[in-house]
Design brief:
Elements: H1 10-19, H2 25-35, H3 39-50, H4 55-59, E1 61-64, E2 67-70, H5 83-92, E3 97-102, H6 108-116, E4 120-126, H7 129-139, E5 145-148, E6 163-168, H8 183-188, H9 202-214, E7 215-224, H10 230-239, E8 243-249, E9 254-260
Parallel strand pairs: 3-4, 3-6, 4-5, 6-7
Antiparallel strand pairs: 1-2, 7-9, 8-9
Helix pairs in contact: 1-2, 5-6, 9-10
Length: 265
């Protein structure tokens, strides 16, 4: 949006954002001004950012893998480091891949992978109704389907043994560390999208326990973990009968676990 009458106040907006602790105040001011429909909305958006709302919740979208992903209030904001997971998945996906985005949040991972591939059969699921509503606005235009429920429970039974790529960006923050997260995540994102239980791997263990029966022969499960969790995550994958390896991306500071179902065909 261009608001010529407010050109003189751009510096004031930048100053307000910088005073509130926004490191990239100039970029944020540009995004907010572009998203605002009128002066009143502009002021409201600036104020919401100043009091601490994530920028993505203020403007209503996140940039992810070169795409604009709609993100509603309280829905988990896709992190740039997770682009490493999508890159790995794109390299491993076969032609006409069947893709499931589990714990999908906004649906960013599945949508980004679908955009990177020629043709996919895309499904997504999340337990949080707000996330499901948001994901449908992103996934449905990409030709996918979104389901509400706990992990695999809501997915069509016909997907068992057919999934080529299972993306599962499970929550992996240990419960006691939730309060140490930046306020933008701690106060404004759904706790169910952050809390991974006592050691951060409780949800992951539930996923890997069922993953083999959903994956096609040679299919892969990809998920993130912290660097310190990688060893225990690999052990959980191995205990479930899958073959694990760790991929790291120093540029994005990402640790991705890739778990494969052996191809017994």
């Amino acid at each position: 949006m261009s608001i010529p009458s407010l050109d003189h106040s751009v510096s004031a907006i930048v100053s307000r954002l910088r005073t509130a602790g926004c490191v990239f105040a100039e970029d944020e001011a540009e995004m907010i001004m572009s998203a605002a429909g009128d002066v009143a909305e502009l002021e409201d958006m600036v104020e919401r950012r100043v009091v601490g709302l994530p920028l993505e919740h203020v403007v209503g979208y996140a940039e992810f893998c070169g795409l604009r992903i709609q993100v509603d209030a309280e829905v988990f904001v896709p992190r740039r480091r997770t682009e490493a997971l999508v890159r790995q998945a794109a390299e491993l996906a076969p032609a006409r891949a069947v893709v499931v985005d589990l714990c999908c949040g906004s649906g960013a991972l599945g949508v980004a992978l679908a955009a990177a591939l020629d043709e996919v059969e895309l499904y997504a699921a999340d337990v949080d109704p707000a996330a499901v509503r948001c994901a449908r606005r992103n996934v449905t235009p990409a030709g996918g389907e979104v389901y509400e429920g706990d992990l695999f429970e809501p997915l069509p039974a016909g997907l068992k043994g057919r999934v080529d790529v299972l993306l599962s960006n499970v929550p992996y923050v240990p419960t006691v560390e939730i309060e140490l997260l930046p306020a933008e995540a701690r106060d404004y994102e759904a706790r169910v999208a952050l809390d991974g239980g006592a050691d951060g791997l409780e949800v992951l263990r539930r996923v890997v326990a069922e993953a083999a029966e959903w994956l096609a022969p040679g299919g892969v499960l990809l998920f993130e973990a912290s660097e310190r969790q990688a060893g225990e995550a690999v052990a959980a994958v191995s205990a479930a009968g899958l073959v694990a390896r760790v991929a790291t991306d120093d540029e994005l500071d990402a640790t991705v676990i890739i778990a494969s179902r052996p191809d017994t065909a």
